[in-house]
Every structure is written in C-alpha cells, then in structure tokens.
TrEMBL record:
PANTHER family: HIGH-AFFINITY NITRATE TRANSPORTER 2.3. Belongs to the major facilitator superfamily. Nitrate/nitrite porter (TC 2.A.1.8) family. This is Nitrate/nitrite transporter. It is found in: Cell inner membrane; Cell membrane. It comes from the Bacteria.
Amino acid sequence: MQHSSIPEKGSSSRVITEWRPEDPAFWQQQGHAIASRNLWISVPCLLLAFCVWMLFSAVAVNLPKVGFRFTTDQLFMLTALPSVSGALLRVPYSFMVPVFGGRRWTAFSTGILIIPCVWLGFAVQDPTTPFSAFIIISLLCGFAGANFASSMANISFFFPKQKQGGALGLNGGLGNLGVSVMQLIAPLAVSFSIFAAFGGTGAVQPDGTMLYLANAAWIWVPLLALFTLAAWFGMNELATSKASLRAQLPVLKRSHLWIMSFLYLATFGSFIGFSAGFAMLSKTQFPEVQILHFAFFGPLIGALARSAGGAISDRLGGTRVTLVNFVMMAIFSAALFLTLPTGGTGGSFIAFFCVFLMLFLTAGLGSGSTFQMISVIFRKMAMERAQKRGGSENEAMREAATETAAALGFISAIGAIGGFFIPKAFGTSLVLTGSPAGAMKVFLVFYIACVVITWAIYGRKK
C-alpha cells in the first residue's frame, strides 16, 4: 500500500493519491522529503514572480532616459498598476490549486510571466510605443503578484500543522526576496550589452555611457523558463487537495477571514507598500541622497524576517508574536516623525533610514506570524465543524486543509492592496501638506487598531 502513495520513478503521473502529513511515521519515511522538494522548487518560482511584479519600479524611472516623454503622473501610474491587478487576481488565484493541481498551476503561472517580460523588452527600445501598450504590460506584470496566493495555498497542503508556519514563512519570505533581488540586479543588468544577439539595443546617455533598458525585463526570461520546467517535472500534485470551487467558497462566510485580512493588510501590505514607495519618499525628503544605492536593503530585511516570523510563531505561538510585532510597528511609526525635515530643513536621513529598516523588519516578521495564525485558526474551526457533523477524521482533515488553503490565498489578496494604497497615501499627503506626516499618522492609528484587535479577539482566549 505504501507504494501507491508516491508516483513511481519515471512515471508520467506525478499525482500522489495518499497524503498523511499529520501521521508521524508517514511524515518521517516519505512526507518530509516530498514536501521539501516541492517547497524548494516553489521558492525560486515565487521569487521570480516578485521580481516581475515589481519590474516597473525599476523600469519606469528610466523611461525618460531612453526617449519616452511620459508625464510624472503617468510614470507613477505604471508603477502602481501591477499592484492593483496583482491584488485583484489573487482572489481567483487563491482557489486555483485545488481545481487544477499545484504542479500544473505553478508551472503555468510561472511560464506565462515570460510574456510581459519579452514584450516589455521590445517596447522600451521603441520610443514610439504608446502609453496604452505600457498600461497593458504593467497590468500583465500584475499576474506575477497573484502567484503568491496560489503558491502559499499549494505549500500549505504539503506540511503538517505544526510545521506550516516555518514552511509558509520560508516560501513567502524567500519569495518576497524577489523585490530586493530585482532592485539589485536590474540596475546592474541595464549597464551591459547582454542580449545583443536577440535585438537588444542600448540608448546613449549624456555622459556617453549606454543604457540597455530591455535587459531589466529580459534578464528574467531564461530563469522563468528554467523554473517553469522545474515545476512541471519536479513538483507533485496531491489528490487529497483536489476540491471544486464550490467547496472552497464557504470560507468567505467566516468572520475570521475578514479579521485576519485586516491584520495581514497591516503586515504584508506594509511590506509591499513600503517597498514600492520608500525610494520615492526618500527622494522627496532627502533629495541629496542617492537612494537607489540603498533601496534594496529594506525589502531584503523584510523578506528574510518573514521566514523567521513563521518559524518563531511555530515555537512561541502566532498570536503572541503578532501582538508584540504590532506594538513595535506602532512605536517605529511614531518614531519616524522625529526623523523628517520640517519646511525643507532639518531631519536626519540616517535616523529615517534606520527607522524604516525596523519597519521593514517588523512588517516581515508580522507577515510570517499572521500566516501562521491563519493556518491554526482555520484548521481548528474546520476540524470542530466536521466533528460536530459526526464526520470521520480523514474528512475533517481534508476539509481543514482545503479551507485553510483558500483562506491563505484570499487573505493574501487583501494584503496586496497595500502595494497601491501606501505609495498613494504618501503621494496624496505630500500634495496636500508638503509632508508625508499625514500618511504616517493614518498608518500609526492603523497599527494601534491592529494591537487592540489582535489582543481582544485572539490574545485573551486560551
């Protein structure tokens, strides 16, 4: 019977028909190795997705240097649109793994990202490319942001509940690292003629150097192709994770779905929003600083902290870690006011940068701890409902896994809205008052509300 649980070597079928991660013997003998392989293929797929999702944050600022005459407002629109489409697409993506299977969906959702990368590489080389074409490409880059929902849902099926925080933290945290990787690699890639054989031409700059802007998009294409194949041939699908869309929709009726969405918006929403807006905000407050030399540090720390947040929550409890984390986010938000210049004078970039690094750190830790809470809460509720109906333990565990995966994906969709809301709030505050302080006051109140909600709903219950 044991052999039926694992696809045979060389078999064209990669569907596992028997999966019992909560069984210690099964996990030790078979489950751990399979789950780990799927996790370590999922991680680079998700990292590349984040690279593509944030691509316009590196490309848009360089478009005027290669002959485009778009307005500043149009350029900001191009950087914001991937966050909008990514957040919206995370909703359907959160339900796709149980319908199509994790292996197939991971390969498909990674492979289609080649389309906007190739298209963008050609578009930036032709200054007559209309703004409408860039709008479409930026929206297509949003598909990359949606991958997070399906990726996290898929990995949740493979691991037992006591290890989900660490596994989801690694998948999400190292995946989030793509933001920092892109901000580090893209500026280097555009300095060299890498794809001349494929039509990659550069634009001469005033200082005599060449800018190969197409490379910022094309550099990811070979890697996307490689890991699409890795997902197709190296990952598995779990027959026990199969579920219709109708079977997953009841999760939308759970009040905890909306409460945890609010908390996750404060953590991951802050991470992705600060990642998108930090460089722009720094430039407005400290124009003398070459912020592009430092911009990748914040997302790097936040991404690594997410992995740690999941693992710490497995040990200490997600609610406890999340509660302390929100207190720290509120404190650092308040401290940020002390670092800003007043009337164009004063302020300290070093203090400003250090406080923001702590905000990235706490946003990352909180992203991992809130996801651990989601796994625990929704598994517990589903198990209790199944037991009340008199269902078997296997039925209860399957329902719990399906509902948890759907919740993880849907909540991640809400969190992604922060990628649009936070930069927009900074911009609006600067236009109305000349300072980002107004936006930071809103964020401070938001974090304090999260402290109260976390303690009142989850912290007081044993």
